[in-house]
Every structure is written in C-alpha cells, then in structure tokens.
Design goal:
325 residues, alpha/beta, Nucleotidyltransferase, domain 5, five-stranded mixed sheet, 45% helix
C-alpha cells in the first residue's frame, strides 16, 4: 500500500495543503484563506485546517487513513506556550500518523535548503527568522517585530523612509527624493500636509508602499539607498543571531530568503549577506522559489522516519506541475 504525506502551510493571508506520495510526487493540493489564530482565532485556525486538508485529500482521491506523516508550518506558532492549543487544532483533523509542528518560517527553510537545514529569513510585510542545524535543533528570534528590535519587513522599510522624510523636513537630516515620492503616493498637497495627515491618523503608512523605496533607491537617491542597506543589515542581523544560537558559524549555512521584499532590490540581499558573512564566512544565499508548503510535506516524511533529501527535487518539480495544471 502506497504511503502519502501531508504538508500544511498556514499563513496570515492564505493557506495551502499539499499531498505527496512515497516517490516524492505531488498528488493533491488545497488552498484557503488565513489561519493564523492571532487573526482568525482558534476556531478560524481549525476551520482553515479542515478546509485545505479536505480539499487536498479530495483532489488526490485519498482518505485520512492513507496519510503516513504530516508536517504543519503555522504562522503564529512562535512560543512553547502555543504548542498545546496548536496540537489540539491539528488533532481535530483526525489523522492517525506522526506529525511535525513548526513555525511557518521553518517549512520555507526546509523547502529552500537542499540539505534541509540552515537559516530562513522572512522579509514580506513583516520579518521573522528561524534556523535548523544538521541535527535538527532549532533557533529563532521572537517574530514580534519592533518591540524586540527585529526589523527588515516592508512595513519597517516604509517607516524608516518616513522617518528620513521627517528628518529632512525638520532639517535634522539630508534632503531626499523620498519626500516627493511619498507626498505623491499619499496624494498630499505637500510634505507638511503629508506629515500632518500621518500624525493625525488621516493617512496611514502600510507595507505596500515598500516598492516606492526601492524605486527611489534605484534612481540613486543616497537616503533611499541607505534605507535599503539598513533593512539588509537588520535582516542579516536576525540570521547572524540564529547562526550563533546554533553554533553554525563555521558551517556552509544555506540562508533561505523567503518573501516578496527580496525582489525589490539586489542591494537588500547583498547587504544582508555581507552582514551574515561577517559571522559565518561560508554562508550562502538561497532564494526561495517554490511554495513553502513543499517543506511541510518534507517534514511530514521526516516525521514518519523517511529521509526526505533524495525526494526533494522530485517533489519540487511535481508540485510546480500540479500548480500549473
């Protein structure tokens, strides 16, 4: 009887489920909306888990008892105190197989790192960083953002740009083309109107303005370039900390870049890598180009005692084909 493995990626905006067979062939896929309990609550998490798992099983023509291992990467699972309620939500699926539960950053890492270990650094709306050493030990930052001095997401980039605009306006810093660009972006009359609107809550800075920072940087504005470098250093610092936690400074660590922000400018990744290599000289960047849920399926195999590394490339290729079908 063929064994099948389930991977689940629960996110803050969308969620995926993937089923693979013992040869690494993707055979089923399901997708749904957000499942992070911080946004949708525990009932919402369970509803999303059931919806995408049912969809993946239906598309593969399988039943739950045919799943031999399952890996769950869940946004919002950041601390040991959250383990029990997350496992309760997973248990509601009624699977009778070994399971792995990790933060969703880790399934991105496993999907992107050929050997299944290294450091994954998320840079999207926000940022996060988790690592896994060759023995499977995990290290991480808090994932809580600015409260714990963790920066580098799109929202952080926009806030930093606005701070530079304020510095220029009050003559505490150099003039920058970011001013004109953001005034136009917000539809403000001038910089005074924009700053007033931001201070009174009439205008709201959001991460979707991050591409504007990259555009101004690409045009050569020194302040915008420094802003991108700042984000790169911050992201690199997250990875360097996790590398130290796991004592991987001397290893050839794969640093998997996860998220849309890395597409904004090569300067971001270059600065990030330089920061990391000051701590781990052999570190090498890997851009995640496959769905993170692939890592969930691989961890499902691992939970069942299977070495997933020989199957990884087959799963990546067959998942791409399944997505296109």
């Amino acid at each position: 009887m063929t064994a099948y493995y389930l991977g689940v990626d629960i996110g803050g905006t969308k969620s995926h489920a993937l089923i693979a067979d013992a040869s690494g062939r993707a055979v089923g896929f399901g997708h749904g909306g957000p499942g992070n309990y911080e946004g949708v609550g525990w009932d919402g998490l369970r509803a999303t888990l059931h919806a995408i798992t049912d969809a993946a099983l239906a598309s593969a023509g399988l039943t739950r008892d045919q799943v031999a291992g399952a890996g769950f990467g869940i946004a919002g699972y950041d601390w040991p105190g959250g383990r029990a309620p997350h496992l309760e939500a997973i248990a509601s699926l009624g699977l009778a197989c070994p399971t792995a539960l990790v933060n969703d950053t880790l399934i991105g890492l496993v999907a992107g790192a050929p050997q299944g270990w290294g450091v994954g650094v998320v840079a999207g709306t926000g940022c996060n960083c988790w690592g896994r050493d060759p023995a499977g030990r995990e290290g991480h930052v808090t994932g809580e953002g600015g409260l714990f001095a963790e920066y580098g997401g799109g929202g952080d980039l926009v806030y930093r740009a606005i701070q530079s605009i304020s510095l220029a306006w009050s003559m505490r810093g150099p003039a920058t083309a970011l001013t004109e660009a953001f005034v136009a972006r917000f539809g403000a009359v001038d910089v005074d109107d924009m700053l007033e609107g931001l201070s009174l809550g009439r205008l709201a800075p959001t991460a979707d303005a991050a591409p504007l920072v990259f555009e101004v940087a690409a045009a050569g504005d020194p302040v915008a370039l420094d802003t991108v470098r700042w984000a790169g250093r911050e992201l690199g610092g997250l990875a360097a900390g996790v590398i130290r936690q796991l004592r991987m400074e001397a290893l050839a660590v794969d640093v998997v870049q996860i998220g849309s922000l890395y597409s904004g400018s090569p300067l971001l990744g270059e600065t990030m890598l330089a920061t990391i290599q000051a701590v781990a000289p052999r570190a090498r960047p890997v851009r995640l180009t496959v769905p993170p849920v692939v890592g969930g399926a691989l961890l499902g195999m691992e939970a069942a005692g299977i070495d997933f590394r020989p199957l990884r490339e087959a799963l990546i290729a067959s998942t791409a084909a399944l997505y296109q079908s």
